[in-house]
Amino acid sequence: MTDRKQKALALPLEPGVYLMKDKTGAVIYVGKAKQLKSRVSQYFQDHKHDAKTRRMVANIDDFDVIVVNSEREALVLEASLIVKYKPKYNIALKRIKGFPYIKVSAQEEFPKLSTTLKWEKDGNKYYGPYMSRTNSEIVLQKISEAMKLPTCKYEFPRDIGKKPCLNVQMNRCMGICTGKISSQQYHAIIGNIVSVLEGKYMKVADSLQAEMEMASDELNFELAALLRDRYKAIVALGQRQKVVSGSMADCDVVGLHEQDGRCCVAVLHYADGVVFDKHTEVIDAVVHGGACETMTEFVKQFYLPRNHMPRKLYLSHDIDDRDVFAAALKEQVGHTVEVNVPQRGQYKEMTDLAVKNAREQLEWMTSSEEKTSRMLESLQKTLALDETPKRIEACDISNTGDVGIVGAMTVFIDGKAKRSEYKLFKVKDVTSQDDYHSMQEVLTRRFKRLQEQSEGFANAPDLLLVDGGSTHAAMARKVVREMGFDIPVFGMAKDAKHRTRALVTPDGDEIGLLAHLFSFIGRIQEETHRFAIQFHRNQRGKASYSSILDKIEGVGPARRAALLTHFKSMKALRAASLDELCVVVPYPIAKTVHEFLGSENIS
Prior knowledge:
Layout: H1 3-9, E1 16-21, E2 27-33, H2 36-42, H3 51-58, E3 62-67, H4 71-85, E4 101-104, E5 113-116, E6 125-127, H5 133-147, H6 166-169, H7 183-197, H8 201-217, H9 221-245, E7 249-259, E8 262-271, E9 274-284, H10 291-303, E10 312-315, H11 322-333, E11 338-340, H12 345-383, E12 391-400, E13 403-413, E14 416-417, E15 423-426, H13 435-452, E16 463-467, H14 470-482, E17 489-494, E18 500-504, E19 510-511, H15 515-550, H16 557-567, H17 570-575, H18 578-582, H19 587-598
Parallel strand pairs: 7-10, 10-11, 12-16, 16-17
Antiparallel strand pairs: 1-2, 1-3, 4-5, 4-6, 7-8, 8-9, 12-13, 13-14, 13-15, 17-18, 18-19
Helix pairs in contact: 1-2, 4-11, 5-9, 7-8, 8-9, 13-14
């Protein structure tokens, strides 16, 4: 009997979660069980498994378990651990890092509104979730505009009495800083905003309409026009928010379609019988089993982290432990959520429509990937490469004079930007404006780390592109060869308007590009330049922060570094209270810093 099987047979017959690990200790699969002993021991018995399970079991070196009190607890814990570990053999939804919420810091004297990916039971109020950060930020912006909320860096009540900003002067902000708005008045405004976020916008709209009519009767047409605009904004926002808040949402319909070893799930959100939003997720075959398993893992990860959801879910395929899942949703949101798999009638037609959306999304993605594949094959032929360039790296330098010279490396895999693999370099050995030697230093460091197989640098590119002409390309080729690599190198030449003109070889030959390749190379060059410029500006900003802090008596290099390390940004440092500053520096210095940053010396 193997050690793993013996360990499994010693487990209790209780509900829990198990974590399978490979020989490196990495979690490769998370599952739940009604009875841990029965479920886990099945993996190490000699009966037949499906192909996915066989691959996983072959990689299991050890496992851990967490015993819980109920199946419902196991279900919730399993979902949270999948999000935490992103195991190789679980479905890990690529775009669900967390749904954005609007947070109202209800316990503060002057509550603030912000967006957050994390919903907590901390006494604050959360509204959402929204399908994207863009949606939540648009709602927040519209609320701020309609209700004239402050958007400046001031903290209240600390900064009441300070010089009003331009927004106050332009009547775009209510002006808490002037001291004319009490905490009670502000809480009343926040109460109206909460009503809008909860979908009860007509209560606020009716009040605004009454005020508008009163202002009109008193011939105060400027105020009446202002209230009219606010009324229209609240009604438009309220209608949208009522759907998002769930107060109008009838149901979600989830459809799954599998094709050529890949799977797509589409979620259609309905309100008053009409689709108002859609979410799709594509899942590769390597991490999913049958339709039931895929649907089960998807709905757990998609719904369990949420605190708002419709009262009915209609699924195209059944899931494991449907009743347990429904009970977990009820516990999470405080109301019954029906989970059904319709077989006929209106709701079956709705799940069929969701499946159709999933199928079309999968076909569109497949078509897009095929188009990208053809484009890369065309690039291979144009540049006479031995292989299709699956991994393309591009480098650029950014500087302003002799200050803050930086290098940036972008990575494109299968034609798509892979931002998680981008790299940034501070140029150390070059102290003057010299793009040639700066690029040489950056490339030398990059390929030295490839030699050393350093983490994050261990993958060699199939194609290296550098910003510049044949001189830069020749230098790059020399660096690559001296490091012992045989990687094709080309320069991205620009025209007089700094737009991509062509690719050039290290020997000075210019290669004309067809339209689709011209667009692709141009996109790479623009993205690399953007990334380099962004890093350069950040570095200049940090230098500016340092120069500001250097003006403060008692703040030397060590204290300056400690403050910036602790607070991360000047915005956070300026917003810090005296007590928060005292955590980093002694009280007299903290008091000096607080007074200096709060004065009009810095705007």
